[in-house]
Description:
Layout: H1 4-9, E1 15-16, H2 25-37, H3 53-61, E2 70-74, H4 80-87, E3 92-97, H5 100-114, H6 120-125, E4 127-131, E5 145-151, H7 162-172, E6 173-183, E7 194-195, H8 202-212, E8 214-221, E9 236-242
Parallel strand pairs: 2-3, 2-5, 3-4, 5-6
Antiparallel strand pairs: 1-7, 6-9, 8-9
The structure holds S-adenosylmethionine.
Amino acid sequence: MGSEVQQEQQLAAPVAASAAEHPSWSDYNQRWFDIWHDGLQKGQQFDKGAPSPQLMQLLSSGQLQVQGRRALVPGCGRGYDVVAFAAAGAALSVGLDICTDAIAAANQQRDEQLTGHPDGAKVSAATELAVADFFSYCHSSGQLFDVGYDYTFLCALHPDMRTSWAAGWARLLQPGGELLTMVYPVDSSRDANTGPPWPVTPELYKQLLPPAGFELVSLEPIPAGLSHEGRQGREWLGRWRRQ
Ligand SMILES: C[S@@+](CC[C@H](N)C(=O)[O-])C[C@H]1O[C@@H](n2cnc3c(N)ncnc32)[C@H](O)[C@@H]1O
């Protein structure tokens, strides 16, 4: 099996981040529609078939408290992490994906993930899976979110979208709310101008989030045992407070 970097490089035809070649956002997004329309299976490409081990550790240890809170997971794909938030007691856990086929897969995955769960019906009711574009989304209630979870989302976006990404988080989280950023892939051997996934650095998040209204709480490498297989040593966890 090739390395995960190779696998993820195959997830879409890479594009160069040059002004001359930069596609419009809708052209860029077409790659995601194609990937999901072509029937991305569990465990293929970026889909790891399970919630993030780091997220599960934060939730089970109480280092991240979500009881009664409202969580948002954009670019949720099959939505493993969305269900994890609801299973940990979130009052509402919303997963967004721009692709209808991704959300169809997430609905199916939610049912599978909750089969045999003692509170399956309650957890299921606390999740919302929506076809929506993060950049224009707001919840139907008009309420903001307490917790945001960004994993393999920033690296999925064209670099030209990054300032809007930070502004989007600021728009969707309430003051005092927490944003968790799983910083991936941190890999200096990769061409920074090619993606997705677009390589990122902890410094990039420090450039993007404070000007948008976030205060840094912590930013640390993730221990190898808390990364998905193939991602060890290339992930950091950032925790930020919305001011
Ligand atoms: C790299 S995948 C990660 C999926 C999921 N987080 C996971 O780890 O399996 C990125 C996802 O973001 C979705 N996406 C891309 N742009 C988006 C946008 N503007 N709004 C919502 N979802 C988007 C894609 O359809 C894709 O499912």
